[in-house]
Give the backbone structure.
Amino acid sequence: MSHFAVWSGIAAVVVASTVGDVLQSRAMKEIGDLSLVRHSHGTWAVIRTVITNARFMIGLAFMALGFFSLLITLSWGDVSIVGPASASLTFLANALVAHIYLKENVDRRRWMAVLCVAGGVALLAR
Amino acid sequence: MTPRKYLTLAIVILCAACGDVSLARGMKAFGAVTLANLPTLYTALLSPWTILGILLLMGFFASYLSALSWADLTYVLPATSLSYILMVLLAKFFLHEYVSIWRWLGVALIVTGVGFVAGGPEATPGAHRHNRIETVYGPVGALGEVADTGDEA
């Protein structure tokens, strides 16, 4: 497989995983602290609230898409490139989209955390 | 941050690392799964290690969602990346895998990253449903009142 195909695969993994993570975070923000819901309505209410949330289910579908894209991309390129690149780029993309779409306060401290973890994950997967 | 929240993050970290290691142990015992020997996969799925791994990963997902319900994504992801470190330690001492100097350097970078978020606030004010209620109405009292409130803001 060409470099272009491998990097397209990595881009697909990063986009699908990031959309999945961000949609799930948005869904959980809408639902609010699960332990409060559990205390007042019980465990089944928590499960029902989560699985009937459209954003959560779409997020789950994107996470599955990200997982299968990763499996396919791993069959195209070296695991030493695909693994670290997709994991660390997903970290960076998550921070960027969380700042823009989820309006999270990503200050300098959090950017440093994301950069360090992304670098660390890339090294672990070497 | 309350002790309950620290406990939730600890469960995320423990379940993620132990779940992956259990799955790895279960799957490695059966060798590579290909289309030609697909029935092997069913046998592998019934191994105690694989079942334990799946149960732990279900625990990971539940506690991860719980953490996302009160903390920002950009807090939860770095904070729970300690699971990568636990995974390296388990790979070295439990699965007896070789851990290179580059991986130890990766561990050091992740620890530094976690240190950056550890002292900061876990959520952006008003981002989560319950703390939007707190932002609008002041501190939340009885637990039931929060969940019963409809469209709050």
User: Anything to note?
Assistant: The CA atoms of residues 38 and 87 of chain A lie 33 Å apart.
